[in-house]
Design brief:
Largest sheet: 4 strands, parallel
Helix content: 40-55%
Number of helices: 13
Strand order of the largest sheet: 4-3-7-8
Order of helices and strands: HHEEEHEEEHEHEHHEEHEEHEHHEHH
Shape: globular
Strand content: 5-15%
CATH class of the largest domain: Alpha Beta
CATH topology of the largest domain: Rossmann fold
Radius of gyration: 35 Å
CATH superfamily of the largest domain: Nitrogenase molybdenum iron protein domain
Number of domains: 3
């Protein structure tokens, strides 16, 4: 009988209770029922409040973790996605680095002359790195653009940022800062360990070249031609100058002007022992330049058959391939260090 009364009271407080149940029992049962209803109400209310609070925290955390603020290599504070998926590389060197990190699937746009590796040529082009096409960039809906200080227009960068497209700028100036750039881009893309491994390899190879060059005090006079008409070489504040010096050569055009111009007579007067030619020109034009210099039989580089044609991309792009260029140059400038005895 007791269980029937409890059940009826819980279902319907107006239930008529048999007299023999007793007043005390009836009161006890009503109080018990009210207590249970109150407990049930409290539990449901607490559950609802907790659920709402949890969801608010969850969404807030998701929103917070969706972006992060970093300092780029020119000292600017930039808010970027935590995991960017639609990247536009605003220079060929940046394209190379993203590929070297194995993250090419994130690249949605690149600049003209992004030709290494070959797969990069299949990606949409957004102009040249000195003349970017803003409309093409915006149409690709990037969540991150990576720019380079030495080349990209500051005005274009500011326009992209005004459209809420984050732009992270890199500023490589020598081999060490190229390594730093690789590490920073690795962090942006969440592949820090891959970047560290790549940089460790670059550093080890650079140190091997340093040790090799220390074996000789001889510093051959090097003329490095990067422009055909007019004749253009490289000054002190260039990647190529650094590579020549590290490879144990004396850059004949070292000076404050990054890319100085010379007449033919001036070059002949320098009497270079090693003559290296590199430019955007290829094929027959490339060979013709070499043939023109080879006519000057009194030139030390001609006498010793030391005029070389090399690929410019591994010497003037701030990418991991700079180390390939360094290793190539030390073999050109100091072949005696590699002679087999």
């Amino acid at each position: 009988m007791k269980f029937i009364i409890i059940d009826e009271l819980l279902k319907n407080p107006r239930t008529v209770i048999p007299a023999k149940a007793g007043i005390r029992n009836i009161l006890d049962l009503r109080v018990s029922g009210l207590r249970r209803n109150n407990e049930k109400w409290f539990f449901l209310t607490f559950y609802r409040i907790f659920t709402v609070a949890f969801l608010v925290c969850l969404f807030a955390t998701s929103a917070w973790s969706g972006t992060r603020t970093v300092i780029d290599q020119v000292g600017r504070s930039v808010t970027i996605p935590s995991n960017p998926q639609r990247i536009v590389a605003l220079a060929p060197s940046i394209t190379e680095i993203v590929f070297a990190l194995g993250q090419e699937h994130r690249l949605k746009g690149v600049t003209q002359f992004s030709d290494f590796p070959a797969e990069a040529e299949k990606i949409a082009i957004v102009g040249s790195y000195v003349n970017l096409d803003l409309e093409k960039i915006v149409a690709l809906k990037p969540d991150l653009c990576i720019a380079i200080k030495d080349g990209n227009s500051r005005n274009t960068v500011q326009q992209l940022e005004s459209l809420n497209i984050p732009v992270y700028a890199v500023n490589p100036k020598n081999i060490e800062s190229v390594m730093e750039t690789v590490v920073e881009i690795g962090k942006l893309l969440g592949v820090h360990e891959k970047a560290k491994s790549l940089v460790d390899n670059m550093y080890a190879r650079t140190e091997r070249v340093n040790a090799l060059v220390l074996k000789t005090k001889y510093r051959p006079r090097v003329f490095f031609q990067i422009g055909i008409a007019p004749i253009v070489s490289v000054g002190a504040h260039t990647f190529i100058h650094e590579l020549i010096t590290r490879a144990g050569g004396q850059n004949l055009t070292e000076g404050p002007i990054p890319y100085p111009r010379y007449s033919r007579e001036q070059v002949l007067g320098m009497a270079p022992e090693v003559f290296i030619i590199t430019s955007m020109a290829r094929g027959e034009i490339f060979e013709k330049v070499k043939a023109d210099w080879s006519r000057w039989k009194d030139l030390p580089a001609v006498k010793n058959n030391r005029i070389y044609l090399v690929d410019s991309n591994i010497l003037d792009r701030p990418t991991p391939r700079l180390v390939d260029g360094l290793e190539m140059l030390v073999k050109i400038i100091h072949p005696e260090l590699f002679d087999k005895h």
